[in-house]
Amino acid sequence: MNVHHFNFNETNSTGASSGIGESCAKIFHQNGNHVIILGRRIDKLNEIKRNLENSESKAKVFAMECDVTSSESINDMVTKLPTELKNIDILINNAGLALGSEPVSNISNDEIDRVIDTNVKGVFRVTRSFLPDMIKRNTGHIFNVSSIAGNHWYVNGSIYCASKAAVNAFSDIVRKEVVATKIRVTNVCPGLVETEFSVIRFGGDVEKAKKPYMGIDALTPDDIADNIYYAASRPEHVQITTIETMANNQASTTVIHRV
């Protein structure tokens, strides 16, 4: 199902049960693209699926529970994809998290494992699951949702910054490895985006989670999804390699003017 001049059919987004992943599902679907939404919260995914199916777009929506920290879960997901949706044209690796804001001397092994398993290993595993078919078909576009924290490192953010620096390197390497193909790779590096991200980071403490966004008009998930859709909809010979987007009044992870 080609849409206007766009050359993609199926979009697969991980971490799609909220935030940027959910917004990506919406913008691609409303523009006539079949979407596959993956995440750990199947109830939320099914709610998003129902909302999309009730919209004007007639494109298909497929929701499946998938834990990107588990190779078994990813393999099961790939096996169970409907035949008509197996040829993934757009892959959006969005699943990610941060935990706490402690110095290296105080962080736990559990926090290290959970962040690295999700933010780094998850991107490797999911990409590896779909990239061989993209290479075989000589088409595809991979989006890795990183962060400005992958370049603008900050105190008490060691695990998260390291994980996003790894995603940046991964994106650059994959792009070089597929340079002889028509596959495109875009690294997406948002600044302050107000989502459930901080609620998870601070263990459900809603008041503490609000503080990073106080005094500044933060980005929204729709802003980032709009960036991603723009890059995906460029002519085939155009590859946008990196998108770094910050809110106005933000210059880095720590240089922020608040009113």
From TrEMBL:
Keywords: Oxidoreductase. Signal peptide: none annotated. The keyword Lipid biosynthesis does not apply. It holds the Pfam family adh_short. GO terms for molecular function: oxidoreductase activity, acting on the CH-OH group of donors, NAD or NADP as acceptor. PROSITE patterns: ADH_SHORT. Belongs to the short-chain dehydrogenases/reductases (SDR) family. This is Short-chain dehydrogenase/reductase family protein.
